[in-house]
Design goal:
By secondary structure, the chain is mainly alpha-helical. The chain is built from 20 helices and 4 strands. It has a 4-stranded mixed β-sheet with strand order 1-2-4-3, covered by helices on one side. The longest helix has about 40 residues.
Length: about 500
């Protein structure tokens, strides 16, 4: 039987062209993102959408607060305005489904970029494991907010810097244009500028003495152009200092995503750390010193603030792809530069595109109903008496975005940078049950109602105060209404 084929060994390497692997990874990420039920669980999504609507309606970026009653008119740097416009546009086009598709496109782009880079150094099996670790690290942050929209820029920026180092040159100047979008979409662009310094230092330390002046000139030019591009925002040079101001706020320690990593319960982040440690102990790898310091620095950032986990897993995977691939290669030899014929790749690309379009059509055709979560008191707001909507409210921090989305001016919301340390720390003291601060705030603002979580210490205080009466309660929120003074004094 001359045409008989030998049986395929179960241990044979998986040979998948880079482009096909990237497309499959992108589709898997897109499909998962648009069906994951937690995409709309964050209350801050509400005020981001309203901010985008305000920008479109006024054809301008707000410079003062247009939403709250407590600090109305205070200077506000809407540093995520471009992401907010994109979020509003997608919401306007397809409702909650449209917003989910927008994040799905961002995740598909991210995974396509990372998958293509991983396959340059790793086999298919190792790349799949690495992508699963990336997904594990992203899931806790997978919500419809600006930070998810800029992850493809972070990945593409890191890859451009890595490629420049491979070719022993500075990145081409056109790459710096990415800062025009990044700096107007999310404050993480500062980390992108820091990465330029890291790789420039590596280039300088590894260059021959005779080449160091050239290295300095080329990388300095790229860094200057990138910084200038990052300053092209509504706030100019002042916008460059804003992320540092935000990072120094003491009130951030009261907010979940800015708190240190917590290992009291098992999490995806802990699983990533343990698996990475196990691999490094089983197969030691060699990492260039500067890149090792970069990874350790990102780990330090993540241990300080959980919100940095997405930076660690994204940039960390890309930086470690080459050394990890070398360590894995003895087991997985599927790294190959051979490609299947173009028609096969084209057919696969067409099929994946059709499936993606079908999933998008399904997602838009079957409207998403935003579920109630601990930060989204949908039912409570539906039971709110109409006259109270125009009275001043003392609200839970996490409810602020939902109130703004409902057209209600909150006392506080997720824009901690605008409210400032003094105001925000005073709020959290009140929320913890500080009766004196509560009375002082009520004397100043004359709240007409409150909306708080059932377990809030302030709920118990109001339940025992004759000047207040509970008018609604469920598992998410409790609403109290101020009793008119003449009735409260009887």
């Amino acid at each position: 039987m001359p045409n008989a084929q030998l049986p395929i060994s179960p241990n044979a390497p998986i040979s998948i062209p880079y482009s096909t692997f990237a497309l499959l990874s992108a589709f898997a990420a897109f499909a998962f993102t648009i069906i994951v039920p937690t995409m709309l669980r964050d209350g801050d999504t509400g005020w981001h959408l309203v901010a985008g609507a305000w920008i479109v309606a006024h054809a301008a970026v707000p410079t003062t607060d247009p939403f709250s009653f407590s600090v109305a008119g205070r200077p506000w740097i809407a540093h995520e305005w471009l992401s907010e416009v994109a979020m509003y546009a997608s919401y306007r086009a397809g409702g909650w489904s449209g917003l989910i598709v927008l994040v799905g496109i961002a995740m598909a782009t991210l995974f396509a970029l990372v998958a293509a880079e991983l396959r340059r150094w790793m086999g298919a099996r190792a790349s799949i494991v690495a992508l699963l670790l990336l997904a594990t690290g992203l899931i806790p942050s997978l919500v419809a907010r600006p930070h998810m929209l800029v992850l493809p820029i972070l990945a593409g920026w890191t890859i451009a810097l890595l490629r420049a180092r491979e070719q022993d040159r500075a990145p081409p100047l056109w790459v710096a244009a990415a800062m025009l979008i990044w700096a107007n979409a999310h404050g993480s662009y500062v980390f992108g500028l820091a990465l330029v310094g890291v790789f420039a230092l590596e280039a300088l330390l590894t260059a021959k003495p005779s080449d160091r002046l050239t290295v300095i000139q080329r990388w300095a030019l790229f860094g200057i152009v990138a910084t200038i591009a990052a300053a092209v925002t509504p706030w100019g040079v002042h916008g460059l200092t804003f992320p540092f101001y935000l990072n120094d706020l003491k009130a951030l320690g009261q907010i979940n995503e800015w708190q240190p990593s917590n290992f009291t319960t098992f999490s995806g982040f802990e699983a990533i750390l343990l698996l990475s440690l196990a691999f490094l102990l089983a197969r030691p790898i060699r990492i260039p010193p500067i890149r090792l310091l970069l990874v350790l620095g990102m780990l330090h950032m993540t241990l300080q603030h959980t919100r940095h986990e997405i930076i660690l897993v994204t940039v960390g995977l890309l930086v470690l792809a080459k050394p990890l691939g070398r360590a894995w290669r003895s087991r997985d030899t599927s790294v190959s530069k051979r490609f299947t014929p173009s028609p096969d790749r084209l057919t696969i690309a067409v099929l994946i595109s059709i499936l993606a379009i079908g999933l998008t059509a399904y997602r838009v055709a079957v409207p998403v109903v935003r579920a109630e979560t601990k930060g989204i008191p949908i039912t409570a707001l539906a039971h709110l008496p109409a006259p109270l909507r125009h009275q001043r409210v003392f609200n839970e921090y996490g409810f602020g975005g939902s109130l703004i989305l409902a057209g209600i001016r909150p006392y506080i919301d997720g824009r901690t940078d605008m409210y400032g340390d003094a105001f925000t720390l005073d709020y959290f003291a009140i929320a913890r049950g500080d009766a004196d601060r509560w009375r002082a705030a009520n004397a100043k603002w004359h709240f007409g109602w409150t909306i708080l979580p059932p377990r809030s210490p302030l709920v118990s205080l109001l339940d025992h105060d004759p000047a207040w009466r509970r008018i609604y309660a469920d598992d998410t929120a409790v609403i109290h209404q101020a009793v008119p003074r003449n009735r409260a004094n009887r």
